[in-house]
Amino acid sequence: MKTTPTAPDGTAERVGMVAGPGRWAWLAAGIWLFYLSQPLQSVAEKRSGVVQVVGFLTIILFAASYLAFFGVLRRSAQAGTLPRWQRFGYLALMLVLCLLMIPTAGQTGLTGLVYISAVGMMLLEMPASIIFVLALLAGAEISMRVVPGWTDDGSYGFAIFLGALAVFGMRRAIQRSIELNAARQDMAELAVQEERNRFARDLHDILGHSLTVITVKAELAGKLIEANPGRAAAEVADVESLARAALADVRAAVAGYRELSLAGELVSARAALQAAAIKADLPTTVDEVPEENRELFAWVVREGVTNVVRHSGAKRCTIRIAAAQIEVLDDGLGPTPGGGASGHGLIGLRERADAADASLQVGQNAGGGFRLAVKARAVRMEP
Question: For the Signal transduction histidine kinase subgroup 3 dimerisation and phosphoacceptor domain, which residue ranges apply (predicted)?
Fold first, then answer.
């Protein structure tokens, strides 16, 4: 359950517990002390010099305690919070000073309750602050009715209510500010996490395919090094070229500018399948595929062929491409028990398909083996 923070706690949260209100905030708050002119005038009208001195002294001490509150607020923001006993102690001090004003200032001394209600609304938790303000309001209204010579004009109770209401609005503004900052922080963290996931997915797809092809070609070169040194040298040259291309892809992915080419992936797929002694039945053109589907289809080719070379045990791999659909089929062992997209690569491919408003299908090929298909959203062709 959310609660409205007190002024010290809210200020600390807003500024990260580094700095509270401005150094000269007490000057802005001091403007409201002009309401103490009424008790000052009442004390000044007293004929006794001792009464006047005591009255002026209590009013000055009360005003000083009110202004000192903003210094306490600043220090509490730097410390992170203000202990509860200090909050109640500060309110008790102000209340005692207000009561000491009444014998010399008379009814006008109730003006101090307005300042105390405002400070109490800032220092206490919301339920306690409401009870505290209601107690002050009741005390002012009852005293004006029972103390001889005092008039019941309702102005003090109304002023206490307005002062508390104004501070309540400030507390709500603080709470909204805290919630907004928290929401912004959550959004920033989600954006960072999403970028991490994107980079991890790209890095897996890039290195998974490249290292698989490099491994297959290196094994082939090792087998041919004695029987056919020339062919082995060509395979080693291909390994070097693939390693350099993989390094360039990683650098491009880090920079965030990497895009796949569907035609390029088909060429790489043919080379990888031939190196693994898998017959490749691949399309020779991608002209019918619209531009907005080509990058997604390129990822399908890369992930599908990588899985065929790694896991399938297939002798033949077929890729079929249409304007809005691509299929990667093999005649190997077929899907694992339970089916579904269970590898990191297939999970990443599903995320890419979802982002492109496409559907991913994995399962058993009609003729045996494994089938990977992605169906993109329909594309309206220009007349």
Answer: 195-259
The token pair at 332 is 């190997």
The fraction of the chain above a pLDDT of 90, given in percent, is 10
**Residue in 16, 96, 26, 85 with CA at minimum distance from that of residue 61:** 96
Dist CA 236 CA 184 (whole Å): 52
Backbone torsion region of residue 127, taken as left when φ is above 0, otherwise alpha when ψ lies between -120 and 50, otherwise beta: alpha
pTM for the whole structure: 0.45
**Backbone phi and psi for residue 277, each to the nearest 5 degrees, phi listed first:** 60, 40
Task: Report the distance separating Cα 125 and Cα 165, nearest Å.
Answer: 15
What domains lie within the chain, and their CATH numbers?
Answer: 7-186 (no CATH), 278-383 (3.30.565.10)
Helix (H) or strand (E) holding 172: helix 155-227
Closest CA to 46 of 35, 58, 62, 34: 58
128, 144 contact by CB (below 8 A): no
Listing DSSP states for 125-141 in one string gives -HHHHHHHHHHHHHHHH
Q: How far apart are CA 40 and CA 36, in angstroms?
A: 6
Q: Give which of 215, 210, 203 is closest to 253, Cα–Cα.
A: 203
Q: How far apart are CA 341 and CA 332, in angstroms?
A: 17
In this prediction, residue 380 has a pLDDT band, given cuts at 50, 70 and 90, of very low
